[in-house]
Amino acid sequence: MTTPWTRRDLLKASGAALAALSVGRPAHAQAPKPGGTFVSAQTTEATGLDPQLVPAFSRSRRSPMMYNQLVRFDAEMTPVPELAESWQISPDGLTWTFKLREGVRFHDGQELTSADVKFTFDRLFEKSPGKSDFIAVDRVEPTGRYGVKFLTKEPFAGLLAALGGFWGFILSEAGIKKHGDLNTAALGTGPFMLQDWKVEQQMVLKRHPHYFKKGLPHVDEVILRIIPDEANIVAALRTGQIHHAFLEDNKNFNLLKDEKTLTGYRSSRLGYDFLNINASRGPLRDVRVRQAISWAVDRSQVLRVAASGFGRLTAPATAPMKQWQLPEEQWMRYYRPDLDRAKRLMADAGQAGGFTVKLGVIPTFPTMVLGAPVVAAQLKRIGITAEIENVEYAVWIKRWLAKDFDLTMNTTPGYADPDTAFFRALHSTKGQNWNSWSVPELDSLMEEGRRTLDQKKRKDIYDRVQILILENVPHLWLFSADTIDFTQASVKGFKQHPMTLLYGFEGVSLDRA
Amino acid sequence: MGRYLVVRAYSMALTLLGLTVLVFLMLRLIPGTVVEQMIGADAIVSPEMVAQLRRFFGLDQPWWVQYSRWLGNLAQGDLGTSWRTGKPVVRLILERLPVTIELTLLAVGFALALGIAAGIVSAVRRDRAVDNVVRVGALLGLSVPVFWQGTMLILFFSIYLRWMPPVVWVDLFADPRRNLTIMVLPALCLGTASAANIARTTRACMLDVLRSEYIRTAAAKGLAGRAVVMKHALKNALIPIVTVAGLQMGILLGGTVVVEEVFTLPGVGRLVLWSIYQRDYPLTQSTILFVAVLFMAINLAVDMLYGYLDPRIRYGE
Known about the structure:
The complex is a heterodimer of chains A (513) and B (317).
Chain A: H1 7-22, E1 37-42, H2 57-66, E2 71-73, E3 79-81, E4 84-89, E5 95-100, H3 114-127, E6 137-142, E7 147-152, H4 159-163, H5 173-179, E8 192-198, E9 202-207, E10 221-226, H6 230-238, E11 244-247, H7 252-256, E12 262-267, E13 272-277, H8 287-296, H9 299-306, E14 311-312, H10 328-332, H11 339-348, E15 355-361, H12 366-380, E16 384-390, H13 393-401, E17 407-412, H14 418-426, H15 440-451, H16 455-472, E18 475-481, E19 483-488, E20 491-492, E21 509-510
Chain B: H1 2-29, H2 34-39, H3 47-56, H4 63-75, H5 89-124, H6 129-143, H7 146-160, H8 176-210, H9 213-220, H10 225-262, H11 268-277, H12 281-309
């Protein structure tokens, strides 16, 4: 009989694994060598490049290569100045004034001014689905050449998170008016300029010579190749055909971790995988049934199968949202599977005999495909038959927007601020209300959280929000898979980011010696 | 000949017109449009925004208006602009066409070489062991689905022979050797069924011809066996083979969709698939139409070739 591992053992082992991974990185900083072409591979092509019109994460990941935000989150998920040098909030909490960095140049050589920022947000509010992030912003006004004011309808604590999120990239007004199309032209201030894009083949980007961060980027050229099959990406890494890849299927980590020529990177991700429950459908309306589902699902088993165990269980605020963390003992107690309790709850809800629901899966998302059978098998134990239904992405989105599902596997790149993380997903009337539910107490708490600028008070509010979520089960936070990247050992300066956006390429250099 | 061409052109135009209706309507029968994808899963959207997007893509118009607009543009030689990439469709096709043409030609070359050789040997050695092997092989070649064969080839070569073709695409002209290493497995895979087809046709035609009296005369005259087979028999057996090979070329062109996906080659086939997943209607519609025109052009060229191979066939006379 094998001895079961304790949590301490696991922590030790993963610590050792992480330490082993860091071998091969230089012990002391060397001056990065400039020049060279850096080749990265991705399985998924961007569905377009316009930072305001394309919601797909494949677009968001690439945007930091060509664009900058006013504010960005550092590796610790703290907002730091980017195109904005500093900012202030008015005493009534309704006006945020940002001071722009001077001398920042777009790819066409023009200087960034407040007019570009205003133009960017006017365009965003007019035609972008991303305006959901800025829901409380009324308008944006320039204050001089290098200043810009965000006027909000009510105090809006989530503004910095929105600016540093997936929709906050700053465009050039002149550039857009000249080119119109943001898919084929390079119009940002970012470290790389779009040179050529062959769909489903490769994207070529050249170094931006006037990038505002002095000395960056180090490499002359970045090529993003599309290799749709991750097995081929693994082969390409092994044979040195590419410099970098981000793994989507975490089991491939085991295949590569011992390769001497590669450096592995593993860290916690802001995003998480979850199980949506449509609370307007049949028995799922009853909170006791949803609680029973939560007690029946063994999240660590789902994690083990869907992400080969590389990741962690997560509270509604994931690990990188450090300042919003609930103490682990407070949320973990909701995650210990308890079949008796689940069955009792089903019986109380008059569902002792069970029922049948559909469980949606998008076949191109490996964690959904792998996780769904585990969830279905676990639900079976309390009499719920979850019929797995493979739904193509475009159809899934259509059904999702129409709230036409019972249960569905889901995944999100995550949100930096609890307002963006919870309000939109869970507010019953003013948000998107993913699960078609309503808990009035939670609604008012989230509204309060949005208006509260005091950090300590906000933390208290969102602690209560998280507990209410765990008790009322809108959806199940299943796990947060680790972010895994591999580079050739000759690549220096690569950094992962909890949002998994490609911020890390500007600091990359190639050691060709 | 001229009249024949006019008739053919006329029937081609009618077929294409039918195809435009079919492609147009079938695409719209698939649930989901580009609009939902543009909105994404995460946005709080107002009905106005949805309406605005639908208007932007012309999806608010009745289908016949959308259809006639597309047809009108086609008539002016405009294949349209891809919704998702913002690039002209014709440019996207031209970027990828060389890969698909190369793959098709390599597959046809392989199919012809293997198919004709196997067919001749099989006919000459009728009912002997080698004939049986060819016949069973051809049956297998015809019945194994391309996607399965492709996956098996990849597995076999990488696991048992430890040989992996380069996974990063290079153009033929940039690095011919590397390019051909990438292409060899896909071409084999794509050409197998055609080789089987050609082998069977060659065998049947050769058997037919070998039974005829002029062959017996040639042999009786004392000609060497090789000369009888290659010079006298093969040339006359060639016409049906050319027909089959020509048709195969069109079929192969369609087969590239699957093979390009399995082997992840950046050709027109994968472009079509991508555009369908993205609900990029102009890209899907016009690319399929383009492939259809190519298919018809090849068939026409094959038909023209008969006249050359067999002077007895003269069109329209």
